[in-house]
Write a structure and sequence with these properties.
6 helices, mainly alpha, 133 residues, transmembrane
Protein backbone atom coordinates (compact mmCIF):
# COMPACT_ATOMS: atom_id res chain seq x y z
CA UNK A 1 0.00 0.00 0.00
CA UNK A 2 2.72 2.52 0.98
CA UNK A 3 4.80 1.51 -2.03
CA UNK A 4 1.81 2.36 -4.30
CA UNK A 5 1.60 5.85 -2.84
CA UNK A 6 5.22 6.71 -3.65
CA UNK A 7 5.29 5.20 -7.12
CA UNK A 8 5.83 7.24 -10.28
CA UNK A 9 2.28 6.30 -11.26
CA UNK A 10 0.94 7.92 -8.09
CA UNK A 11 3.06 11.01 -8.76
CA UNK A 12 1.56 11.24 -12.27
CA UNK A 13 -1.86 10.78 -10.69
CA UNK A 14 -1.14 13.67 -8.31
CA UNK A 15 0.02 15.86 -11.20
CA UNK A 16 -2.99 15.13 -13.43
CA UNK A 17 -5.29 15.29 -10.42
CA UNK A 18 -3.79 18.67 -9.56
CA UNK A 19 -4.57 19.94 -13.04
CA UNK A 20 -8.12 18.58 -12.80
CA UNK A 21 -8.46 20.17 -9.34
CA UNK A 22 -7.43 23.53 -10.80
CA UNK A 23 -10.10 23.12 -13.48
CA UNK A 24 -12.58 22.15 -10.76
CA UNK A 25 -11.66 25.10 -8.54
CA UNK A 26 -11.55 27.66 -11.34
CA UNK A 27 -14.79 26.54 -12.89
CA UNK A 28 -16.53 26.71 -9.48
CA UNK A 29 -15.64 30.39 -9.27
CA UNK A 30 -17.05 30.89 -12.77
CA UNK A 31 -20.21 28.84 -12.11
CA UNK A 32 -20.75 30.69 -8.84
CA UNK A 33 -21.65 33.76 -10.89
CA UNK A 34 -24.81 32.00 -12.11
CA UNK A 35 -25.68 29.59 -9.28
CA UNK A 36 -25.32 29.16 -5.54
CA UNK A 37 -22.20 27.77 -3.87
CA UNK A 38 -23.56 24.27 -3.24
CA UNK A 39 -24.69 23.77 -6.86
CA UNK A 40 -21.50 25.36 -8.21
CA UNK A 41 -19.38 22.90 -6.19
CA UNK A 42 -21.26 19.97 -7.75
CA UNK A 43 -21.18 21.27 -11.35
CA UNK A 44 -17.50 22.21 -11.04
CA UNK A 45 -16.76 18.72 -9.75
CA UNK A 46 -18.24 17.24 -12.93
CA UNK A 47 -16.09 19.59 -15.04
CA UNK A 48 -12.99 18.54 -13.11
CA UNK A 49 -14.00 14.89 -13.29
CA UNK A 50 -14.15 14.92 -17.08
CA UNK A 51 -10.71 16.52 -17.14
CA UNK A 52 -9.41 13.94 -14.66
CA UNK A 53 -10.74 10.99 -16.69
CA UNK A 54 -9.09 12.15 -19.91
CA UNK A 55 -5.76 12.90 -18.21
CA UNK A 56 -5.72 9.73 -16.08
CA UNK A 57 -6.46 7.50 -19.06
CA UNK A 58 -3.88 9.26 -21.20
CA UNK A 59 -1.02 9.91 -18.74
CA UNK A 60 -1.42 7.67 -15.70
CA UNK A 61 -3.16 4.36 -16.21
CA UNK A 62 -3.30 3.89 -19.96
CA UNK A 63 -6.19 2.17 -21.64
CA UNK A 64 -6.03 -0.92 -19.46
CA UNK A 65 -7.85 -4.08 -20.38
CA UNK A 66 -11.37 -2.70 -20.57
CA UNK A 67 -13.33 -0.48 -22.92
CA UNK A 68 -13.50 3.30 -22.59
CA UNK A 69 -17.21 3.05 -21.79
CA UNK A 70 -16.62 0.55 -18.99
CA UNK A 71 -13.72 2.58 -17.59
CA UNK A 72 -15.85 5.74 -17.72
CA UNK A 73 -18.75 4.04 -15.94
CA UNK A 74 -16.54 2.74 -13.15
CA UNK A 75 -14.72 6.09 -13.02
CA UNK A 76 -18.11 7.74 -12.47
CA UNK A 77 -18.96 5.34 -9.64
CA UNK A 78 -15.65 5.98 -7.87
CA UNK A 79 -16.26 9.70 -8.26
CA UNK A 80 -19.76 9.55 -6.80
CA UNK A 81 -18.06 8.70 -3.52
CA UNK A 82 -15.44 11.42 -4.10
CA UNK A 83 -17.98 14.14 -4.92
CA UNK A 84 -19.87 13.28 -1.74
CA UNK A 85 -16.63 13.77 0.19
CA UNK A 86 -15.85 17.04 -1.62
CA UNK A 87 -19.34 18.46 -1.19
CA UNK A 88 -19.67 17.48 2.48
CA UNK A 89 -16.29 18.90 3.45
CA UNK A 90 -16.85 22.10 1.44
CA UNK A 91 -20.27 22.76 2.97
CA UNK A 92 -19.18 21.82 6.50
CA UNK A 93 -16.23 24.19 6.30
CA UNK A 94 -18.04 27.05 4.53
CA UNK A 95 -21.22 27.00 6.58
CA UNK A 96 -20.00 25.93 10.02
CA UNK A 97 -16.31 25.46 10.81
CA UNK A 98 -14.68 28.47 9.15
CA UNK A 99 -17.30 30.96 10.42
CA UNK A 100 -17.00 29.43 13.90
CA UNK A 101 -13.23 29.98 13.69
CA UNK A 102 -13.80 33.64 12.80
CA UNK A 103 -12.78 33.30 9.15
CA UNK A 104 -14.72 35.86 7.13
CA UNK A 105 -12.71 36.28 3.91
CA UNK A 106 -12.36 33.73 1.12
CA UNK A 107 -14.54 31.26 3.04
CA UNK A 108 -15.86 29.55 -0.11
CA UNK A 109 -12.42 29.40 -1.70
CA UNK A 110 -10.79 27.86 1.39
CA UNK A 111 -13.66 25.43 1.94
CA UNK A 112 -13.72 24.30 -1.68
CA UNK A 113 -9.93 23.94 -1.93
CA UNK A 114 -9.85 21.68 1.14
CA UNK A 115 -12.88 19.76 -0.13
CA UNK A 116 -11.19 19.08 -3.47
CA UNK A 117 -8.04 17.73 -1.74
CA UNK A 118 -9.81 15.26 0.53
CA UNK A 119 -10.60 12.43 -1.94
CA UNK A 120 -7.11 12.18 -3.49
CA UNK A 121 -6.16 8.89 -1.85
CA UNK A 122 -9.53 7.14 -2.05
CA UNK A 123 -9.83 8.13 -5.71
CA UNK A 124 -6.35 6.85 -6.61
CA UNK A 125 -7.03 3.45 -5.09
CA UNK A 126 -10.48 3.23 -6.69
CA UNK A 127 -9.25 4.20 -10.13
CA UNK A 128 -6.18 1.96 -9.99
CA UNK A 129 -8.13 -1.09 -8.83
CA UNK A 130 -11.37 -0.61 -10.74
CA UNK A 131 -11.58 2.19 -13.31
CA UNK A 132 -8.39 1.48 -15.26
CA UNK A 133 -7.42 -2.07 -14.34
Amino acid sequence: MIRQLVSSQFMRFLFTGGLAALVNFGSRILYNRWMGFSAAVCVAYVTGMITAFVLARWLVFGKGGQSTHRSAAIFLLVNIFAIAQTWAVSILLADYLLPAMGVRRFVHEIAHAVGVMIPVFTSYIGHKRYSFR
